[in-house]
Amino acid sequence: MTPASSSTIPFANTYARLPERFFAEVAPTPVAAPRLIRVNAELAALLGIDSDWLASPDGVAVLAGNRVPEGAEPLAMAYAGHQFGNRVPQLGDGRAILLGEVVGRDGIRRDIQLKGSGPTPFSRRGDGRAALGPVLREYVVSEAMAALGIPSTRALAAVLTGDSVMRETVLPGGVLTRVATSHIRVGTFQFFAMRGDVDGVRDLADHVIGRHYPELAQADNPYQALLTRVVERQADLVARWLLVGFIHGVMNTDNCAVSGETIDFGPCAFLDAYDPSAVFSAIDENGRYAYGNQPGILHWNLTRLAEALLPLLARETEDGVAVAQDLLGAFGPRFEAAYYGGLRAKLGLTRAEEADKDLGRALLEIMGANHADFTLTFRRLGEAALGPEGDAGVRTLFDDPGAYDAWAVRWRERLAAEPMDPETRRAAMNRVNPAFIPRNHRVEAVIEAAIARDDFGPFHELVTVLAKPYDDQPAFAAYAEPPQPHERVLRTFCGT
Ligand code: AMP
Ligand code: MG
Fold this sequence. Notes:
The chain is an alpha+beta fold. Among the domains are: 2-181, no CATH class; 349-419, no CATH class. The protein has helices spanning 41-47, 51-55, 57-63, 132-148, 186-193, 198-212, 222-244, 294-313, 317-328, 331-346, 355-369, 374-384, 391-395, 401-416, 422-430, 440-453, 457-466, and strands spanning 23-25, 35-39, 75-77, 81-83, 86-88, 96-103, 109-115, 130-131, 154-166, 170-180, 246-247, 269-270. The strands form four sheets. Strands 2, 6, 7, 8, 9 and 10 form a six-stranded antiparallel β-sheet that branches. It has a two-stranded antiparallel ribbon with strand order 1-3. The longest helix is centred in the middle third of the chain and has 23 residues, at 222-244. The chain binds adenosine monophosphate and magnesium ion. Magnesium ion binds next to loops.
């Protein structure tokens, strides 16, 4: 007999205290046969949850939505949004249920949410369920982002439901337990703004300030300060995405978190060969959310946030517009500083020189023209930083290796202006240029093995490799490789 473990999640809920129109109280719908796929023991520990209990039948019943744990106050959050530029006044958690919040060992408050846990009043025509594929993709990619050091929602667990879901085909159902510092989106503000509910906007803003940015409560105008802070966090975030080759895929305003965390890993993908116009999402017909469009789209989304906050930014609407424009104007410089600062580090430089932007852009340009793999080029530059003997590994990534040679001459001149012990430089570069990213073909292979063969070995192995993206991990070298032509993923799907 196994000893009874403490079946507790230390809930301390605040969102449930907000006015009733902020959410709908709704419990998860039980499933046929819960089966654990994986528990994230490290994250559980951070949250103060016993991972052995979480993996026990009792815990798995909670993760599958078959048992509502003590202290949970399950609810579906209301939100609106702009989807592909179109105004949608009502979206909301249609297949997700917030169980509640916990304050972690680090003192940070986080949401615990079940995704795929059954219908809610916001489900519209959807079934409230998630197929196994998207659950595994979100687990892999969100945890990979976190390990890369990029703000992201996290995955606490994945379970199978034992029920089937109908998509284009019949698929196994799953539930992902998602953890976020909050699930409040630009679209949550829009929900109230689109209804002319200024009190709702204010209550939400006060909640967000108290929860994410308590230092802003003392500002002259805390709502202006809030907009400024979200602009900064999001500008930094999109710069980080570009620097690892991440394409979110559905940057609708409802998928844009005011915490500055990456949220919603639907048709997301990573660049193999560098291509600023890369689009993978099957539903993004016009390339609105292409890799290189992401900063511009983010600015557009933040403008929607400013619009929603407008009545709080100044007494007169007129003034509010001027204030909003002014605050949004900070986006460009903030993004550029984060992006070019990051690019400089990827090149092994520490001092800022104006010409570095050009040097970085020149490399990207020849990478694009020569179909060079984004991740491998930067990773192998670390070897090249030791000396020209290290060039061989980089050159072979270019259709015309001579294009790299010409660029490398410029690069070495610049490196010489900043003397540094080569080993130290390589180590610094390896801390910002990952060896391992969730390559699209690897993610697809993991999903395929799980669905076709009920084999979760590849999933576990991929999660393990991606937990240390900056380490060489020679035993897993194959995971660093780009796809063979026949393995290349050309399209990704939300699968909702
Ligand atoms: P997403 O594309 O994942 O950001 O979802 C957009 C909206 O559609 C959100 O309001 C979701 O809750 C809703 N939604 C997506 N899939 C489903 C589903 N299977 N059942 C109900 N609602 C869904
Ligand atoms: Mg979404």
